[in-house]
Each structure stands twice: as structure tokens, then as C-alpha cells.
Amino acid sequence: MVEGTRSQSVDIEKGILIILVVVAHAQRDIVHDIIFMFHMPLFFVISGFLIKREKLLKAGYMMGKIKHLIILYVVYLVIDMLLVRKTFSVHDWMYAIWGGRAVTGVYWYITCFLFTLFLFFALIRKFPDAAVKGFALIGGGIAVIESHLIDNIHFLQSPGIPWNLDVSLMALIYLTIGFYYKGKIKELLKSDLKKYDLAAGILAAVLALICWFIYRDGNRLYYFDMKPVCYKELISALLIPCAFGFVFVRLVYWMEKNNWLKV
Length: 263
What we know:
By secondary structure, the protein is an all-alpha fold.
């Protein structure tokens, strides 16, 4: 991928994830739970992958990003409240302004993404890369601690931290992975080496076994969901999305190589 040009590979990856988001939200079942294991983490990984250091550190970049997304966020929220939900309740509007877990829908993602980007921007300006990675892991550890506390602290459930800013502690890890390992991701997207296909096949088989083990008795032994702060330990929260991401990246490679999407 040439710097400054649009990547068809990334567009395909995002397209697959968007389709999976729709499928996952169609109903709550095993398919929903499996997709939730990885779909939002991979969106943050892709965001980190697309960030260029020089552009991020450029004066005015963060303010421009905030203005661009917040204006759309507010416009969509107002239209939704007035024309779709048709509510003039002060209570409903206060919760909508609070955002995050206090309001149903997709609103949490934009605010969480912006704050995650701000955290990353602040860290990368002040600290060396090794320290940034360390801070990201610390943030993930704090997020896991919160996940264990949330069942006993009602405020964390509803209305929750404003704009779901707390979820940024976990999202920061995924964005950091995408940013610092973009070279490896590009290699996976373009390399003809069979070892990557072998690794992807093995990972796909392992993920299938994990999913079978988790849901074999109809009882959910593991669940991951970023919005309600449901990630009970850090290792699986890192490894499972990355494993799915590895498989999807190699799938996209073969889709491009064989022109599966060409009309």
C-alpha cells in the first residue's frame, strides 16, 4: 500500500466487519456472541493501522477530527431523538446528552473513538514508543478491573461513565496494535508466503474449537462486549480478536488475489 493512497484491502476488511455488525445485531444468539468477540476490537485496530504519525502530530489534526465527528454525532442524535424515538422527555434528553451506556444505539463508539485517539495522541507526543505500549497495557488492565467491579457498582452500569470514555482504556490497546504493527499487517495483506496461510488455517481451527467449547452445552462460558464493559481478563481480550484479525487479513489477501469481488 502506497502512503497517501486508499487501500482496497482495508476497504474490504471494513466492509466485512460492517456486514458482521449488521448480522450480530439482527438477533442475540451464538452468532451474535462470536462476532462480538472481535468485531469492535478490529475496528479500533484498523483505525490505528490507518493513523500516520506525522499527520497525528500535525497542529490542528485532533481539533479537526473532533469537530468533524462531533458535529455529525450531535446532528444524528437530535434527528434520532426527535423523529425516530419521538421523545421530548427531559430524562431521555439528559441521558442522550450523557451518552455512552445511558443511551441505546451506536453513539458510544464515536465518543469512545475520539477519546481513545486523544489518549494516544497525548501519549505519543510525550513518551517513547515502548512507554506508550506499556501505558496501553496498563489501561487495559484497569479496564479489566472495572469489568469485574461493574456488577456491584450500579453507576458504572447506568448511566455509566459519560460518553463511554472508560471503554477507551481497552480500545487504546487495539488502536496501539494497529499503529505499531502496521508493517506486519501490510505484510499479511500482500505476502505470498504459504506459512501465513498455514498459520491462518491453524488459527481458524483453534478459534472454531474455542467457540465450540464455549457454547457446546448451550451455556455461554465466555462473553466479550466493549460497550457494557464486559471483558473479564486481558489475555483473551487481546489474543482472540488478533487471531480473528489474522484470519480475516489472509482471507482478504485471497479475495484480492483471485478477484472475488470483481464484477
